[in-house]
Amino acid sequence: MAWGVQAQEDLSQYVDPMIGTAKMGHTYPGATVPFGSVQLSPDTDTIPYEVNGRYNPEVYRYCAGYQYDDVTIVGFSHTHFSGTGHSDLGDFLMMPTSGPLQLNPGTETDPDSGYRSRFSHDRENASPAYYQVELDDYGINAELTATTRVGVHRYTFSEGEDAHVILDLMSGIYNYDDKNVWTFMRVENDTLVTGFRETTGWARTRKVFFALSFDKPIAKYGNQKYDDKQAYRGFWGRFNESENFPEIAGRKIRAYFDFDLEDGDELIAKLAISPVSTEGAIKNMQEETPGWDFDAIHQAGVDSWNKELNKVQVSTIRDTDKVNFYTAMYHAFLGPTVYGDVDGKYRGLDMNIHEAEGFTNYTSFSLWDTYRALHPLFNVLQPARNRDMVKSMLAHFDQSVHPMLPIWSHYANENWCMIGYHSASVIADAVVKGTVTSDLDHALNASVTTAKTAYFDGIGAYMEKGYVPEDVSGASVSKTLEYAYDDWAIAQMATKIGREEIAQEFADRAGNYKNVFDHQSGFMRPKLKNGAWKQGFDPLDTHGQGFIEGNAWNYSLYVPHAPKEMIGMMGGDTRFVEHLDSLFSMDLPDRYFANTEDISREGIIGNYVHGNEPSHHVVYLYNWTDQAWKSQDKIRMILRAMYQTGADGLGGNDDFGQMSAWYLFSALGFYPVAPGSVDYALGSPLVKEATINLENGNTFTVEAQNQSEENVYVSKVLLNGEVLSEPFIQHADIIKGGKLTFIMKRRPNKKIFSKD
């Protein structure tokens, strides 16, 4: 029976959106639906991106707009990234207030100077598709829910006199004085407001349209312009635009809407967004929220989450394991996000309006993070969506003037953030695993063209010399290693579709990792364009050593496509295992990551940096040695140490679901070490049992017999009753349905998977 018609559990009860909202998890607690365009969430401060022309490191804490330790809420904006290490968005911030009108947000140290409000976590609740908080300074209970493209607010005013709703069109995340390029707003009638906002920053040309509707008539409205120093303003000076004037335009605008309310009255507001037009936003609102029943909209959002969460049903050792598991699923299904109107129209990379024909268009591709485990997870749990994501990447390529596939893209913009060309990995993995079966030549050609863009990030030197020289392009070792892996992925795709010449060319390029390995030191290290090693090498350091967000100890293990060859290069099984053992037991002094935003002590075990992505495959490398059992206790240790309940439960940025995807795979007992391969490496499952309800109607069950907190080792693994002699299963084993059984023990079976 297909999973979609089976009785569903209310698994939303195990999701805690507060996990990761403290410290460096960078998650948001607000209301959204799976892969939704709208992420309606509270913002707790107005930290600027720069101060006196210099980057303000304090802003890094606010990548998701919310920090759990804050004591005030500025308002509720409609767009947020989840778990990222850089930011943007925070569009269309709304804040209900009462009493004297204030249009300045104020400060945390002096909240009474602005419209923000104090709040307490005791009167705050977050769950899938719902967020609620009491705004203490106003006695207003604010509730939020959402559909894919519409954010819905319900405000209950304990005191109805002087009720206001602020619409701050200046507010944003990673904000600075010149971020707003232009804003435009029209009051269409006494319940409907439309407009748009154009910003620059991480995305340098980003335009978002909105339609805002209230369930009660606006009694009075107005706005204030800031920094209104245009050289020429035409003849608009003949009007008083600040009060009850139906259209306003400028760089920086804050608007307000007043309502005649009684004590205890509710006010409901719906704000729809569109990348195309206000007409598109209105259509989105009419299609997704035709009525005003807040509770029904909320329940539909919960139902949409339960549909997705029921794709995996688990029993666990602890109740808190269920919370961590389903919160990880929730975080994994927050993005990439739908980018387009209900009619399929969206703004393309060329700034023209396109229509997605036969697919849903997606945006926000944090590919340096998500190619590793999130997109492979989608090939198991969300193949239809991942297929559309690949089509979205190919549309990006078609619209790119370079032309290139996405590197890190959002809202019709390429940000050029981070390294590699990992769209190629995502596409290759989907092709090799049979998720994508059409337009294959286009997919391959787009990947090849991207990989041969000589002027991008040292690729020209990489193609010429077989490595990226450090004196040509920084982070050269990381780039060389990641390019080599991506090249291997392209070769796998080419082989799959019978393009043997390309397969051979990129298989040869995939060996370039050898060119930055120093046999004397035993580490990957930066090389100069004259072929000499860069001097002053410190394998524990990141800065100036040829690496990005990692050191030589961790990055030297990044050859996911050729682990056996890497192990041989590093001295064979015995020496490699000793090296890998020491990674988890040695000490990494604070000075080596003190100036690195993305790495903190909470994400480190020994010198193993789990709070950042380049090491996520490392613990599974034992499977390519004669001591596969050594991965098992370490996997369970990482699962326990890096993923906990509570606001500070994540050991690093969730990175748009990558950290969560690692947890999900590892808790189920297998992991995609090299996306682009059909193989998964086996580990030590955390679940007692899991049923994966696949999109094709099949089910794949994971069973851990004798599972307990102490039984972290695996004595035997069976697939459909047959004992496995190697620590791997294949994608087809999962997709066709079946049963994977782990026999758990307290002590290791040191001969597991032995052929003796």
Task: For the structure shown, list the relevant keywords.
PNGase, six-stranded mixed β-sheet, 17 helices, calcium, disordered N terminus, nine-stranded antiparallel β-sheet, hydrolase, Sugar hydrolase, alpha+beta, 756 residues, 24% helix
Shape designation: globular
The overall strand count is 39
- Low-pLDDT stretches are 1-5
Percent helix, as a range, is 10-25%
The structural class is alpha+beta
| Average pLDDT number | 96
Radius of gyration: 26 Å
Strands in their spatial order, largest beta sheet: 8-9-10-11-19-15-14-13-17
The amount of beta strand, in percent, is 15-25%
Largest sheet: 9 strands, antiparallel
Q: Report how far apart the termini are.
A: 41 Å
Number of helices: 17
Question: Mind sketching the topology for me?
Answer:
Blueprint: E1 41-43, E2 50-51, E3 54-55, E4 72-73, E5 75-77, E6 93-98, E7 117-118, E8 124-127, E9 130-135, E10 140-146, E11 150-157, E12 163-168, E13 180-187, E14 192-199, E15 206-214, E16 220-226, E17 247-250, E18 252-259, E19 266-274, H1 278-288, H2 294-309, E20 312-316, H3 319-332, E21 337-338, E22 345-347, E23 353-355, E24 362-363, E25 365-366, H4 367-370, H5 374-381, H6 383-399, E26 408-410, E27 413-414, H7 423-432, H8 440-451, H9 459-465, H10 476-496, H11 500-509, E28 517-518, E29 523-524, H12 552-555, H13 563-569, H14 573-585, E30 604-605, E31 608-609, H15 630-642, H16 658-668, E32 670-671, E33 679-682, E34 687-693, E35 699-705, E36 713-719, E37 722-723, E38 728-730, H17 731-735, E39 738-745
Parallel strand pairs: 35-39
Antiparallel strand pairs: 1-5, 2-3, 4-7, 6-12, 8-9, 9-10, 10-11, 11-19, 12-18, 13-14, 13-17, 14-15, 15-19, 16-18, 20-34, 21-24, 22-23, 25-26, 26-27, 28-29, 30-31, 32-33, 33-38, 34-35, 36-37, 36-39
Helix pairs in contact: 3-16, 5-6, 6-7, 7-8, 7-10, 8-10, 10-11
